# Entry
Amino acid sequence: MKKQYACLVDSERCIGCFTCAMACRNYYHQEEGVVWREVYPLDEEIYPHRERAFFSLSCNHCEDPACLNVCPVQAYTKREKDGVVVHDQEKCIGCGNCIRSCPYGAPRYNPVEKRAEKCSLCHERLDADLQPACTQACPTGALSLVDLAAMEQTSQVQYPAGYPKMTQLNPSTRFILPKVPKMVRR
Amino acid sequence: MQSIEFPLVLFTVLSQAAIGIALMGAVRVAAGPDGGDAKRQWRMVAGLMVLGLIGSLFHLGHPLDAPDALKHLSTAWLSREVLFAGLFVGLAILAALIADKNGSAILSGAGALLGLAVILSTGMTYAPPAFPAVNNALPTVFFLVSAVTLGAGFASWFAGPGRQPLLARIFTSALIVGLVVNLVAPCVWLSGGEVMRMTGLAWFGSSLYWAHIAVMAASLAVIWKTRTIPMWLPILVLFGELVGRAGFFADTIHTAANMGGLY
# Structure
């Protein structure tokens, strides 16, 4: 398998503090309402406990990305060296086709630029041997950068409940599921 | 798809009306001269396509860069849609200039083929994995039914008296198919996955959806009564299709809308 950078989301460790989303915002200063990284609470149907569990999600840098395939102007490229899917905003004509097509809602419309944009896994930081802003900022180590080619397969899952299963796209994000909380009765 | 997307509503419905008229033109040419006026019909096809294409530019953030949309023909159905729509409007303008009253079999056949290619590519463009309810052949079916209904309706303006019963039969059949497909599809979605079920509920709770159904049912009642297509009926059907298409874009639910919930 070729090198494929991905985010490992450890829901057992995630406390839903939104530091990852804020770090992304602090680094890129997106327009108001444009969000590249979201923290989604799991529904009670999936995690029926008083404690909450979360998925911190942005672009999944899929193996066969819908955004790249449907973009009529070839504004998306998948980097050979690390599998990161990068959007070239200069090429974008703002047709919204990638926004409609990505099942994970990663590309967003920038109403000021009138073009789409999305997380590029801080590829310029990766090139400088730095961590993406989100993984670097996570205070609990719940969000980390991994290389799927080198990662040891243990308890990670690709399609947990609460996350769309799109096998054709083969999203790179991996998850560690939250454990059932310990109940203490008096 | 969460917003009405008016420019796309305008483009898809007007282009499908134009393609439908071209399809009916091919049927009429194949059936022999009928005393109708093919030249005026091609003018309407070209006019509707030009209007639709101008409308479509308004959904782009950067309309002047629209020609760039031809760059990704290898995988992007939107690029293919732009290519086929461009070829179709070019053919329609050419036919409007050179066709005579009886029409030409070559122009009609080429128009029908290109029109079907536009419908297929438009259908595939609006069938992405992010919308499980329509991530299939349904958009193409919806669009084809719209094209045939509108095409038969508007073609009756240009056909001779001998072809009116044929067009009325096609119009009636397309309306019945349209009604059945539009009523059955959301019912099927109710028994699907969570996002499909949400889409079914959104369509059934949508005034746009019911207005479209009501217009189709009313048009069917009119044609049942009159047995021919009154001049004003295609206008009513066009209104219904515009409203229904707005519902298609506004009420179809995206998978990301349920992130963190069951799928």
About this structure: Residues 19-28 of chain A form the longest helix (10 residues). Strands of chain A lie at 5-10, 38-41, 54-57, 76-78, 85-87, 108-110, 115-117, 143-147, 174-176. The CA atoms of residues 50 and 186 of chain A lie 17 Å apart.
